[in-house]
Amino acid sequence: MTEPSAGSRAQQRRRTEERILAAARQMFAELGYERTTIRAVAKKAGVDAGLVMHYFGSKNELFSRAAELPVEELANGSPDEVAEALLTSLAKRLDGEPAASLAVLRSMLTNAEAAERYRAAGGPQLDRIAAGIPAADADLRAGLLGAIVHGVIIERYLLRLGGLADASPERIVELLRPCFRALAAAEPADPD
Amino acid sequence: MTEPSAGSRAQQRRRTEERILAAARQMFAELGYERTTIRAVAKKAGVDAGLVMHYFGSKNELFSRAAELPVEELANGSPDEVAEALLTSLAKRLDGEPAASLAVLRSMLTNAEAAERYRAAGGPQLDRIAAGIPAADADLRAGLLGAIVHGVIIERYLLRLGGLADASPERIVELLRPCFRALAAAEPADPD
DNA sequence: GTCTATAACCCGATAGAC
DNA sequence: GTCTATCGGGTTATAGAC
Predict the structure, then answer these.
(1) Is it the case that residue A122 has pLDDT exceeding 90?
(2) Nearest CA in chain A to B152
(3) Residue nearest to nucleotide D5 (CA to C1')
(4) In this predicted model, what pLDDT tens digit does every residue of A60-117 receive, in sequence order?
(5) Which of A4, A41, B50, B153 has its CA 20 to 30 A from that of B44?
(6) Which helix (H) or strand (E) holds B76?
(7) 3-state DSSP assignment of residue B38
(8) Chain B residues close to A28, C-beta within 8 Å
(9) Which residues, including other chains, have CB under 8 Å from residue A14's CB and lie 6 or more apart?
């Protein structure tokens, strides 16, 4: 076997593929779908634009692969547990590099297919959240919870507006906790 | 004076300009900045693409004029009044056609100038909200309030996800009221 | 004032040399 | 596997005819 120096050919391919995907994720997150060009992604990854096409076939396919989100496991239980699970999930997305998350969020708003993919992935997740809320309008409450999460992320990373941009995830979560509990639980006691 | 049939020339011009702006607003709201083309706006307004350029000079200038937002008057007073003012403002933006509002929101995420304009307009407004909140972290609380408003609008109109898309503004406001009060007021009473 | 024609430049995708 | 050349299409913006 004429084993080459650095891994098999398949390994080599996977590595450059991963480099291209990383570059694409970053650019989709920063510029959105329309303004990211295959040429620019290729240059950033240090390869030729034709190679990107060779690997992924089309810009849309490249986006699909770059925007694949690890399915978030969301424990469902009591209303308070639902609220807490959402809060920790938010906290996790609030520090570190949310490149993949931002790529979807930003592109979703300009690319129809991205929006559709997100709806398909986010819908069932909202349903799972709604299942843990003991109220007639559980779906609306779940929708509001999701909206708040998105609003916070967008305001912090995309708009960089107000005190949200540099606040610590812990303080954000702390301030949001009463909100989430109020939305996840039915009204605690309404004596009339 | 050889007065023509329908208004002066200046009036005629203003009317077609307004027609172009209405078409532009709608398309910017639906497609975002990048995907709306001057050609399409012109066709929608029933004029020639060259005429749009003649009137507005550039696509960016057309967007600036189309995305001019009426400055929202926001009464500030006690924390509860701040929360209530925000809620009624949200309710107003939640029914009817929020074309201008959506044009900015959607384009903001891909167009640098739109983002800058929004930051310039939204920053002071957040400051005014923060001024009515008696807490050390008033700016963060104001930022969160703004984030929730944006999240709800985005989720309802742009993503059309979950039960938020077809819920009545009144129910949304009702569910959000405890959230807003909790964020606008310092903790009411914490007996420990 | 309105529209046609076109310049100058980008893009995604394809075909084919090496 | 990698890259060059190019096709066919789109865009903004300009120049000029009517």
Answers:
(1) no
(2) A147
(3) A50
(4) 999 999 988 777 776 668 889 999 999 999 999 898 777 778 888 888 877 777 788 8
(5) B153
(6) none
(7) helix
(8) none
(9) none
